[in-house]
Amino acid sequence: MAKPGRWETVDRSSLPQRILLLALNVLLGAWFLVWTVVILVVCLPFFFLRPGMGSGDAFRLSLRRFIQFYGRTIIRLFWPVLRLKVENASALKPVQPCVYVLNHFSFIDVFFCGFLPGRQTVIAIRSWPFKIPVFTYFMRGAGYIDVESGLSEDILSRAARALRSGACLLFFPEGHRSRNGRLQPFYKGAFRIAALNGVPIVPVTIEGTESLGGYRCRMLKPSRVRMRFFPPLQAEGSGPGAILKLMRRVETLYRKEVSLYGRPDARPASGK
């Protein structure tokens, strides 16, 4: 049996189907670029037309709200290629601040930050979005956290400041996209931040994006996406044992609720 490559892509479309899918992705790419320009030109100014915009905090807040609006709008504009169902979000509106943790199948997952309750979420993510032209100015201006740059203590400090300001945080605890449909080992950062600052972890699951630039299909393929919010989980202390226990609770929930993670061949994740 051949060994799987870095990505265990399972798309088995015929050649005509692949050609049609490629054409669809070219159209979607053009659609994305056009609407990005339209949203920037038409909508962005309205997020800054309010008193007090001279302060840095007000600027960052408006930029965070705009980014969430942008992500939400882009996802909606991809209908019917992307059909989204969001469940249980309304039950979490009183939960502020908190740390959201989201499983990770595709590069497109970050756009779903627009559907998080509230309008002030700081995304903690790897370096790649900070390297994209134009996007980097919005990421840095909004005070988002690059988890691959700087010392861990600096990241902890920035996260604590964001929580004290009333913002929520969003982490992808696996650190990178799943390349085989299995749950990847968790990093402890999100859970440590939640425990040290006395705020809850709110688990969020997403299913369907594995066919939207994920391991099932490297291109965007018509898909139904399900995004679900679960009750907040509080750490039972701030020590290493409490942090590990909180991380395991989320891992167990993911394995139970995300169908791909429940496969017989799914390997257990181990924390980092």
List the SSEs and their pairings:
Elements: H1 15-43, H2 56-77, E1 82-87, E2 99-102, E3 121-125, H3 135-141, E4 145-146, H4 152-164, E5 168-171, H5 189-197, E6 201-207, E7 223-229, H6 240-257
Parallel strand pairs: 1-7, 2-5, 2-6, 3-4, 3-5
Antiparallel strand pairs: 6-7
Helix pairs in contact: 1-2
Account of the 3D structure:
The chain is of the alpha/beta class and 272 residues long. It has a single domain (15-262), classed as Glycerol-3-phosphate (1)-acyltransferase (3-Layer(aba) Sandwich). Helix content is 36%, strand content 13%. It has six helices and seven strands. The protein has a seven-stranded mixed beta sheet, sandwiched between helices. Helix 3 links the parallel strand 3 (121-125) and strand 4. Helix 1 (15-43) packs antiparallel against helix 2 (56-77). The longest helix has 29 residues, at 15-43. The chain is globular. Mean pLDDT is 84; it is low at 1-10 and 264-270.
